[in-house]
Amino acid sequence: MTGVLFEQVGGVAVLTLNEPESSNALSKTIKDGLVRHLEQAASTPDIRSILITGTGRAFCAGGDIRSFDDRTPVAVRGRLLDTQSLVGYLTGEKPVVMAVNGAAAGAGFGLAMLGDVILVAAEARFVPAFPRIGAVPDLGLAYTLPRAVGLSRAKDILLRNREVSSTEAVAIGLAHERIEGGRLMEEALAVAKGLAEGATVALGMSKALMQGSFDMSAKQFFQAEAAAQALAFSSQDFGEGVAAFRGKRRPNFAGR
């Protein structure tokens, strides 16, 4: 079975974790498939957004417990660095939509939180899982979750190993929209297509500004903002956006 399915739908790269028998745990096959297809998406100009989901009842069950037997520091660090290779692609300039179709546990929770837009099915749930086996949250979860829901609430979820339902996830800002009636992929694809049709040069720089803002002083941020805006104004998309506004028509952005 292919660990990750890849399909290009218009300007959207759709990646589907496809090992439902193991609840799409992050096996080497899945990790290698994600890296390969994310690299392909990043380097293909006419792919302008990315959508990630899972096959079956789970989004991703986290780390593959079959790989946990070697617990030497070198082995553990190597496995984690291997998994972390995904982060650069997911935090890159192309917008990422996560369609969380079921349980997102452990590193699967961390993976979901790396999306720019997180959409959840009614049956989705987020489970820290790490405290249950005596592990530290990884794949950036202890970094991304406090930024999404606040430090106090993140501590409550991660330290108590507290499961978060799809309803609560949206209520606390962990996810952005709860979609019922089996329409998750339909809605997620519509969102991803909308992003792909946008001014992706400006969207990418906006994403970088927001991600970097936590590590900048106000002065540094405004300097970065001015530099990004100068680049945006020189883009083909900006010219098209202004022309469309003046012509009272819908813009046709090219991502350049």
Automatic annotation (TrEMBL):
It holds the Pfam family ECH_1. Keywords: Isomerase. It comes from the Bacteria. GO terms for molecular function: isomerase activity. Belongs to the enoyl-CoA hydratase/isomerase family. This is Enoyl-CoA hydratase/isomerase family protein. It comes from Vineibacter terrae.
